[in-house]
Amino acid sequence: MSRVGEGTYKLARPVVLMGAGTVVGPKESLGPLGKSFDRVKATDLEGAATWEKAECAFLAEAVETALRKAALDTADLDVLVGGDLLNQLISFNFAARNLGIPAIGLSSACATYAEGIGLLAILIDGGKVGKGAVVTSSHHDTAERQYRYPTELGVQRSPASQWTVTGAGAMVLSGGEAGVRITDVTFGRVIDHGLKDPNNMGAAMAPAAVDTIRRHLRGTRTTLADYDLVVTGDLGRHGLQLAGELLEQDGYRPGAKLVDCGVRIFDGVPDVDCGGSGAACSAVVFGGDLYPRLATGKLQRILFAGTGSLHSPLTFQQGETIPGIAHAVTVEGA
């Protein structure tokens, strides 16, 4: 591994993606990607006593599905990397206690999946880990309870708000030459432009996404022409538009190459406002849609930039602004 730019690293050898597992709720199946997910739950609770317990179960199932598709068992993994949106990563930690895999919990909000892939790829490239998995989860109702209002209140949503994805996505990584592979990693900087509206997270995250994309392109000495797609995590429609405008101000012309997982997953689905969000958003879109297209040659190379809004209920109550972050990886097809 070599450092090629600010926060940007080129791997000495490719790190291969061996298998993905995706679990989603019923609403997520209504969009254009509905048939691409491994498991679609009939309800958001799926027999669990609470939404939090349901999210924990979805996370564990995503890991087990990814392992099965990679023809591996939990004992084959050196480490499990991941996180969620709930207090102290409860979904990740409570699932990890039953999976029995050494665990590294991460917290970059909705950017956690890309962060986990980048971190695990570097550990594998450095020979510290042989095989590992990345997993993230979120749940619309657990997020509403923690970050906004009790769902029972029926509070009217802002037109700029996003619908938290219910589900979980996992990916198994290892060293190797053949297959879909990670070649470059850029870790994000925390960017804060002073926004305070938690119902417009896309605007808060867009500057961080642009900062990371710009540094990644400079560090890897690539241009937008070198990628089939530049994929952000969950900026939503407003954030995606803003990111495109900011890139154009920097001299880039992303056009239709710039796409967003949050926009994609709920495209055409009513009552989701600006699109999807949540730690599971980019994970299930990457594992269910982008990864198979890379594996079959429909995509040759993408820049995958997970985005995260780093506020909490406490910081909002104390009048703090909303910082954003984005982590990015270059993913090349098989």
The CATH class of the largest domain, by name, is: Alpha Beta
What is the element string, with H for helices and E for strands?
A: EEEHEHEHEHEEEHEHEHEHEHE
Q: Specify the structural class.
A: alpha/beta
**How many strands, which pairing sense, and closed or not: the largest β-sheet?**
12 strands, mixed
Low-confidence stretches: none
N- to C-terminal distance:
21 Å
Q: What are the defining features of this structure?
A:
334 residues, alpha/beta, Peroxisomal Thiolase, Chain A, domain 1, 2 domains, twelve-stranded mixed beta sheet
Detailed description of the structure:
The chain is an alpha/beta fold and 334 residues long. Helix content is 33%, strand content 25%. The longest helix is centred in the middle third of the chain and has 20 residues, at 201-220.
How would you briefly describe this protein structure?
This protein has 334 residues and is α/β, with parallel strands linked by helices. Helices cover 33% and strands 25% of the residues.
